Amino acid sequence: MNLLTFRTEEDLNRAGAGLIASLLQIKPKAALGLATGSTPIGIYEELVKLHRSGSVSFAKASSYNLDEYVGLSGSHPASYRCFMNTHLFDLVDIDPANTHVPNGLAVDLEQECDYYDAMLEDAGIDLQLLGLGHNGHIGFNEPDDSLIAGTHAAMLQRQTIEANARFFDSEQDVPKQAITMGVAGIMKARQIMLVVRGASKAKIAQQALTGPITTQCPASLLQLHPNLVVLMDEAAGAWA
Ligand code: GLP
């Protein structure tokens, strides 16, 4: 595991965007595993800057997002599809047809999950970007006695609903279910970049990265990945 702590958010964002940009320079057709939440926003902003300066092109790349709320259409402002369009896809030269986010409106969720897994298998994710939930979740793989390997519809835990309520008008509006890539799907990526910011995540980051590997902390499974890079700001990485 490569653990990197940055003095400023700007340094962290540049490093994160730099990793993605270098991959695209070496492999223009890279399959990117992307994430939402507040954590990756700065990295996407840096990528947009790099794109505008001509340093990076997404023209041949494809993207696969980790998760999407069940019941939200892509035009809902709190949907992850809308998030991705706003923060990255609409601002760079990626072909919209090559951007993939699970369909939260699918009538048959099981079928949608199978379809998504088949696509992931076919694409082979080169780099998976991840944030970290306060309870140790990755994507929407919540702490539990067991975890699910493939893409599946997951029930969100109270803590996750509360944490994500800031993106909705009220807590009641937060969907209770989401489609998420499973832990096997995530672990299959050739490289994983976990990004953690803020003092409120220091404890869970330490637990996930140095504590026991347990399904009660899904991010702890990342310790098993052969090519994991962790980018933390000073507050989140104070223990490292
Ligand atoms: C959500 C997402 C995760 C994300 C996490 C952390 O629940 N499903 O993919 O990593 O929240 O979000 P944030 O970066 O806003 O703290």
How would you describe this structure to a colleague?
The protein has helices spanning 9-26, 41-52, 80-87, 109-123, 158-164, 183-187, 202-210, and strands at residues 2-6, 31-34, 62-65, 67-69, 99-100, 127-130, 152-155, 177-180, 191-196, 228-233. The protein has 240 residues and is α/β, with parallel strands linked by helices. It has one domain (2-233): Rossmann fold (3-Layer(aba) Sandwich), CATH 3.40.50.1360. Strands 1-10-9-6-2-3-5 form a seven-stranded parallel sheet, covered by helices on one side. Strands 4-8-7 form a three-stranded antiparallel sheet. The mean pLDDT is 97. 2-amino-2-deoxy-6-O-phosphono-alpha-D-glucopyranose binds at residues 35-39, 66-67, 131-133, 139-140, 160, 164. Catalyzes the reversible isomerization-deamination of glucosamine 6-phosphate (GlcN6P) to form fructose 6-phosphate (Fru6P) and ammonium ion.
